[in-house]
Structure formats: structure tokens, C-alpha cells
Design a protein that fits this description.
The complex is a heterodimer of chains A (296) and B (228). Chain A is built from eight helices and 16 strands. Chain A is of the alpha+beta class and 296 residues long. Chain A folds into two domains: 211 residues, 4-Layer Sandwich (Glutamine Phosphoribosylpyrophosphate, subunit 1, domain 1); 71 residues, Alpha-Beta Plaits (2-Layer Sandwich), CATH 3.30.70. In chain A, the strands form three sheets. A seven-stranded antiparallel sheet of chain A has the order 7-2-8-1-14-13-15, covered by helices on one side. Chain A has a five-stranded antiparallel sheet with strand order 9-10-11-12-16. In chain A, strand 4 and strand 5 form a beta hairpin. Chain B is of the alpha/beta class. Chain B has a single domain, classed as Pectate Lyase C-like (3 Solenoid). Chain B contains two helices and eleven strands. An eleven-stranded mixed sheet of chain B has the order 1-2-3-4-5-6-7-8-9-11-10, with helices on one face. Chain B is elongated and about 60 Å long. The chains are: A alpha+beta (296), B alpha/beta (228). Chains A and B meet through loops of A and loops of B.
């Protein structure tokens, strides 16, 4: 069992409240997944820049002068924002590859990167994870989150969701995949590699590889229904929005709500209880084997 | 007169204890629950005459094991609503999630919106009326009772069905193993008429088709090995 949530804002006025609303949704899903929590938030973008979110178990030493060290290697301006065990480095997109290679060499864990996406995930209760990163104070256009009760890999930061396998793309998942080892080998043959032993990361890598090959988000999500075996309710975040798909058996719960202000997704209705105007929202259960997505 | 219980200030366990005590007292009281906020196991295990109006949507297993009580959810219900119901009436004004009315032995589950997958799975005598559509694998291994659907049914309706009667007004995406369309005889029209009236459904019995068991999977038959 896991809990997943997503919130896509239709109106810019609500942007400052995104973190606050998502945090309540995430905390409500604690009893579906108390061992780790994570969130991907799509916030401000700067023309030509990319944000790389990294994690370290020893942030005091790992993040000290990290910006200067990256700057020296990539020969470009770098800024750093440290939040607990995570740091977000902002730098020109032209030097992203070199920066990621250098950060990995220094033993930092890459949570994700992109023009607007930042990923924060850690082991611990969702309320503690949210507090450590100050999720409530974060603004943005949309975000997805996950509370984990582990089944397929160890309870570690790298085993927590969301999983990002391409710039600005990430996936959260409730369920378990059966053919992930086979799919991992297939993807590796195409040069697509994953960083963990986790089944969901393979799902994320499959979707990103399809998008990289030219598929739309809708087509890539559709592909999961034929190529991925197992139980899943997936929510995929992209720079422009998010998509939802459930396997044909659909035993993993899902509910959606839409108003003029937002589209919300959750494993259970409880997560919507504090959303503004929820009483008047259109609430429905997404159909099995059907792709839904909202983009701006 | 009715008593209002506000779940913003009263814990779920306390609310359920009060309702269960009132049910046992057979005082036939009315309760209104506010701020249900999708809580789990709302108004479950009520085994006496009692009316409960839940304002808003409920989570998993609302009205489970109900006996004699009347429960109205003025919103949508999460998975497993009215599971293993024995008698009484449970009404869902909105939609119901998966396995609504599962294993129910009796009473009426009246869903005004849609029900999703596995509605009435293994039902054992309950009557379920769904005013909208139902999802896949509904009435799987259903043994007894009536499932009435005013809208459409999803894939594999009535798979491995025993003696429950299924009435569908709209289309059926596919029938499950051993489920077949059957003749609508006068006694079925009578049963359906009564159920539609009880559920306040705006439909005529003549508009429905009846589905039931072909009874070919009851006993192992080597000629049917491919069907297993």
C-alpha cells in the first residue's frame, strides 16, 4: 500500500498556496505509507537555466562550497539553495550534463533536474519530511507526492518516490510491477539506465524513454498498459502538467476532483477534505486502462 | 428529533460507538454526521433500527455489516461500502467505489450514481440498485440476490455466477464465464418492478435484460476444461 497525491492549479493566484495544499494532502495519506515521503514541485523557471536537486546524508560537509566547486568545473555561474539533506543548484542548461557528472562523482545522489521541477524525498513520516524541507512554504503551478509503504526495494532515500528519469519528468506509483527486471534489461540495451533496484523507477524510465523516442505523454502512458505488467496507479508529472493511468484490473484506489481552480488526484477522498471548494467539486474515480492528463 | 455528531470535534471511534449503542437500544433514533471528510468505516456494524445521514463523502468500508439500520451518504462512498450487509437500507447519493455491497446477505444498497469495479462481488442475498453504470467484474461469483443496473455494465459481468439475478438496462461490455442472457419472465418483471419502486428509480422493468448463470461450471466437467 502507498498513498499518492497530485495537484494541478488552473489559476496563477493559487500558486503561492501549492505547497501548503499538497502538504495537507500528503500528511493525510500517512497511514497508507508511513516509511518515507516525497514530493515533486514545479515552481519558478528562469530562461536558459536548469535546477538540479541533489541529496546527501552529510549535508554540512557535502554542500559546503559546493556551488563554487561546480562553478570551477563547468565555468558558469552556479547558485545553491540548501534545504535539510537536499540542495538545489541552479546553473545554465548548457552545462547541465557536466554538472551532473561532477556531482555524481562527488558521491551526491541526484534526485532530479529540470527547468521547473524540484524533488524532495526522505525516509520518515510525511509530516516530518514536509517540515524538514519546508514544503508548506513552496509555491508553484503543480506538484505530485507520495507516501511509501515499501514492497519492492529497501526503505532508503533512493527507494522513495517520486522517481525522475528525465528532465522535468517524474513518476509516483501505488502498486507493484511484475516485469520490472525484464524491462530494466530491455531499457539498458537501449542505453536507458536506472539508479535503484526499485520497480517504480523502471516504470518512470520506460515512460521517459518513450517520450524521448517521440511519443506524447498520452502515448507513453498508454504504452504502460501493454508493456508493463503488474498493479499500478501511476501519476506522471511533466513540466506542463500531470497524467494519470491505472492498470486494467484497477485494484489500487484512485479518486479525482476538479473545480474551476484546480485538478486534484489522490489515493483516497480523505486527501481532498481541506481543498478549497471541494464540496462543490466534480469528484470521480478514474476508469481502468484509461489515460487522463492535464497540461497548461 | 435528530442528534448531530460533528466529526471535526468528535473522533470516529466515538461516533461509531454512539451509533452502535443507539442501534442496540432499538430506539429508532435519527443521527446526522457532519464533517465526515472521507473517514473510514463510518457507521459500520449497526445492528438495530436507526437512521444515519452522513453529510459529505466517506472512505473505505462505510456501513459495513449493516443490520436493520438506514444509512444515507450525501456524497460518494469509498471502496467496500455496505460490505457484508445483512439487512436495512444503505443509500449513496453520489458514486460508490469498488466492491460495493460485496458478500452482502440482505437488505437494499441503493447507489444513485455509478459504482466502479467488482460491484456485488460474491453477493449472497442483498439487493443492489445502481442508477448509473457499473465497472468490470461486477457480480463475480454472486450467489443470491438481485443486481439492478439502470446504466451500462463493464467487462466480465457475472463471471462464475451462481444463482443471483442480474438486470441491466443499458449495454453490457462483455459477459464473464458461464454468465448468459436469460428470458425475462413475468415473475422477474414483478421482482424488478418492486425493486425499482423501493429504490425510487425512474425506469420501467420492461426496459431491462436479465442475465444469470448457465450453470455449466457448477461441477467439474472434463469437456469444459478449456473454460477454467
Amino acid at each position: 500500500m502507498c498513498g499518492i497525491v497530485g495537484l494541478f492549479l488552473k489559476k496563477d493566484e493559487l500558486r503561492p498556496q501549492l505547497g501548503d495544499l499538497l502538504t495537507d494532502m500528503l500528511i493525510t495519506m500517512t497511514d497508507r505509507g508511513p516509511d518515507s515521503a516525497g514530493i515533486a514541485i514545479y515552481g519558478d523557471e528562469a530562461e536558459g537555466s536548469v535546477k538540479i536537486t541533489v541529496q546527501s546524508d552529510t549535508p554540512e560537509t557535502a554542500f559546503a562550497d559546493l556551488d563554487a566547486a561546480v562553478c570551477a568545473v563547468v565555468d558558469a555561474p552556479v547558485t545553491i539553495r540548501v534545504l535539510d539533506t537536499h540542495a538545489v543548484l541552479t546553473l545554465p542548461e548548457t552545462v547541465e550534463k557536466a554538472a551532473v557528472a561532477f556531482l555524481e562523482e562527488r558521491g551526491l545522489r541526484i534526485m532530479g533536474s529540470g527547468a521547473s521541477m524540484e524533488i524532495y524525498k526522505e525516509v520518515g513520516l510525511p509530516k516530518d519530511v514536509a517540515r524538514r524541507f519546508g514544503l508548506r512554504e513552496m509555491g508553484g503551478s503543480h506538484g505530485i507526492g507520495h507516501t511509501r509503504m515499501a514492497t519492492e526495494s529497501a526503505v532508503t532515500t533512493m527507494g522513495a518516490h517520486p522517481f525522475s528519469t528525465a528532465d522535468d519528468q517524474c513518476l509516483v506509483h501505488n502498486g507493484s510491477l511484475s516485469n520490472h527486471n525484464q524491462m530494466r534489461r530491455k531499457l539498458a540495451k537501449k542505453g536507458v539506465f536506472t539508479r535503484s533496484e526499485n520497480d517504480t523507477e523502471v516504470g518512470a524510465a520506460y515512460i521517459s524513454s518513450r517520450i524521448a523516442e517521440g511519443a506524447s505523454l498520452g502515448e507513453a502512458l498508454e504504452g504502460t498498459l501493454t508493456d508493463i505488467d503488474g498493479f499500478f496507479t501511476f501519476v506522471m508529472g511533466t513540466r506542463n502538467g500531470f497524467g494519470v493511468v491505472r492498470d486494467p484490473i484497477a485494484c489500487k484506489p484512485a479518486v479525482m476532483a476538479e473545480t474551476d481552480d484546480y485538478v486534484a488526484f489522490a489515493s483516497e477522498y480523505r486527501a481532498f477534505a481541506d481543498l478549497p471548494g471541494i464540496e462543490a467539486a466534480r469528484v470521480w474515480e478514474p476508469e481502468p486502462a484509461t489515460v487522463y492528463f492535464w497540461e497548461r | 428529533m435528530s442528534t448531530t455528531l460533528d466529526m471535526a470535534t468528535t473522533e470516529l471511534r466515538e461516533v461509531n460507538t454512539m451509533l452502535q449503542t443507539a442501534a442496540k437500544a432499538h430506539a429508532n433514533e435519527n443521527y446526522i454526521i457532519t464533517n465526515a471528510r472521507g473517514s473510514h468505516a463510518m457507521a459500520c456494524g449497526l445492528d438495530g433500527p436507526l437512521t444515519v445521514n452522513v453529510k459529505g463523502s466517506t472512505g473505505y468500508y462505510c456501513a459495513g455489516m449493516n443490520k436493520d439500520a438506514t444509512i444515507i451518504v450525501e456524497g460518494s462512498a469509498g471502496p467496500g461500502v455496505a460490505e457484508n450487509m445483512m439487512s436495512g437500507v444503505v443509500t449513496i447519493e453520489g458514486d460508490a467505489s469498488q466492491y460495493a455491497g460485496a458478500t452482502g446477505h440482505g437488505g437494499l444498497l441503493n447507489i444513485k450514481g455509478n459504482a466502479s469495479s467488482r460491484c456485488g462481488i460474491s453477493m449472497k442475498g442483498i439487493d443492489i440498485v445502481v442508477h448509473g453504470n457499473i465497472g468490470h467484474m461486477s457480480a463475480f461469483m454472486a450467489q443470491k440476490g438481485n443486481l439492478v443496473v439502470l446504466g451500462d455494465a463493464g467487462d466480465a459481468l457475472g463471471d462464475s455466477l451462481y444463482e443471483a439475478r442480474l438486470f441491466v438496462r443499458g449495454t453490457v461490455k462483455s459477459l464473464g464465464a458461464d454468465c448468459v442472457e436469460k428470458e425475462m419472465r413475468p415473475e422477474h418483471i414483478e421482482i424488478l418492478k418492486e425493486l425499482l419502486e423501493k429504490a425510487g428509480a425512474d425506469a420501467r422493468p420492461e426496459e431491462f435484460k436479465r442475465y444469470g448463470s448457465a450453470r455449466k461450471l457448477y461441477n467439474f466437467n472434463i469437456d469444459h476444461a478449456d473454460a477454467y
